[in-house]
């Protein structure tokens, strides 16, 4: 009862407020269900609610694509909207993250949340497009996230960054519009098909990636280590 009363007395988080992660978590837990907030560089960012189809459908497409890679690849772990603890000033909730299990050399670990640096973070920027581009991109870059995929749905633009010498550089797109992950061999994305909502074409391109020599070698190595 005392804990419940204490929680009820905690003030709601405010946009732009500066707090520590421990206080952020306590006050976040006390807020009404459905409220979403993130802590970036010690600053509170309240997220839009409810979620529109401009976010939900692209999110579903990304999760379908990532989910098929996850199912096919031992030792790879996929999470949807999980809390990611980067450090004491940054607690975020990316739309999706794909990670290599830590026992296989991955940069993150799983407790009640995900902690550390997952190999790939993906965001759908609908109402949060500016926030995901200006704020989160810099945080992910500075905290060493190897790859960051951002789909800005209002302007139908796709960005996939790779960390090179501490700075994000755009992954190249070939003449067919295919982008290939440098962290996860075989994770191929048909950018034009994704933007056009042609999920079958997106999945066909992924299947081509899963049949590539690079993926076969990667998968064989993971199976030997993971069992």
User: How far apart are the first and last residues' alpha carbons, in Å?
Assistant: 47 Å
Write down the Rg. 18 Å
Which sequence of SSEs, written as H and E, runs from N to C? HHEEHEEEEEEEHEEEEEHHH
Estimate percent helicity: 25-40%
Widest sheet: strand ordering: 3-6-9-10-11-12
Strands, count: 14
CATH H-level superfamily title of the largest domain: tt1808, chain A
For the record, the count of structural domains works out to: 2
Rounded average pLDDT? 84
- In CATH, what is the class of the largest domain? Alpha Beta
What spatial form do the alpha-carbon principal axes imply? globular
Structural class: alpha+beta
Oligomeric state of this protein: single chain
* Biggest sheet character: 6 strands, mixed
Low-confidence stretches: 1-7
Count of runs of 4 or more consecutive helical residues: 7
CATH topology of the largest domain: tt1808, chain A
Give me the CATH architecture of the largest domain, please.
Alpha-Beta Complex
């Amino acid at each position: 009862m005392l804990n419940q009363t204490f929680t009820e007395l905690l003030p709601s988080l405010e946009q732009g407020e500066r707090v520590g992660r421990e206080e952020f978590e306590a006050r976040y837990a006390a807020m009404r269900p459905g409220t979403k907030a993130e802590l970036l560089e010690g600053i509170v960012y309240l997220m839009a609610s409810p979620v529109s189809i401009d976010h939900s459908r692209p999110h579903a497409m990304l999760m379908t694509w990532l989910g098929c890679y996850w199912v096919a690849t031992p030792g790879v772990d996929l999470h949807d909207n999980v809390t990611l603890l980067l450090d004491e000033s940054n607690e975020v909730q990316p739309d999706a993250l794909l990670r290599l299990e830590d026992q296989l050399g991955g940069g993150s670990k799983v407790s009640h949340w995900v902690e550390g640096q997952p190999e790939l973070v993906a965001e759908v920027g609908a109402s949060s497009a500016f926030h995901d581009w200006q704020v989160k991109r810099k945080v992910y870059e500075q905290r060493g996230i190897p790859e960051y995929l951002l789909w800005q749905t209002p302007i139908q633009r796709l960005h996939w960054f790779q960390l090179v010498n501490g700075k994000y550089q755009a992954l190249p797109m070939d003449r067919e519009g295919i982008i290939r992950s440098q962290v996860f061999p075989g994770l191929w994305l048909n950018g034009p098909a994704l933007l056009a909502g042609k999920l079958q074409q997106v999945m066909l391109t992924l299947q081509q990636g899963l049949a590539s020599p690079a993926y076969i070698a990667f998968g064989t190595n993971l199976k030997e280590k993971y069992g």
